[in-house]
Specification:
alpha/beta, 6-stranded mixed beta sheet, 6 strands, globular, binds zinc ion
Amino acid sequence: MEIPKFLIERYKFWKENTFKDYKDIYQQASKTPQKPIAMIITCCDSRILENSIFGGSVGDYFIHRNIANIVPSKNDKGQNIQTLSAIEYALKVLKIQNLIILGHSNCGGVEYSYKSLLDKKNINDFEYINQWVSCLQKSYNNIPNDFSETEKITFLEQENIKQSIKNLCKYEFVDKLINKNKLNVIGLWYQIDSGLIKILDKNNTFIDLD
Ligand SMILES: [Zn+2]
């Protein structure tokens, strides 16, 4: 096994620059347990730089990534263990009070889910992904018929965030914290090309964050 040259070069640059600049913060962080200000559940997509968007420093954000930033429902048996383990740790152990679900535009996972639910002919021979993206079935069912394909996919990206929040609230330990006002759940949708972020408001509608 050979480590790619770009990794070594980038690591060296980080060690000599970024790490040096933040050395005190790193050393302090190693002496105390982590105390993140929010948990962010987002997509595996390499274009989502959540720490950059929200000015994250060492220890600020507890991150969980999966394909299409899905929180599976209780009924999606066997599919929710990884994501729910991360959420359970964040809420029960780290006692994080802000949980963000950060979806995004141009989401390959959502697009594939849309296409595979639209027509079985579009289903690829994946070993795991097909089962995972089938979690979006409920959101898919809500897509308005009169939308263009692009609008339908954007709708599904945003509907998936709404449904993930609904799914999340059905887990008892999450629901308890929300009812005690100890947990704030936030739905965000990020547009890659413009940098725009939309937030899910109290009327369950996405509005511009700024
Ligand atoms: Zn994505």
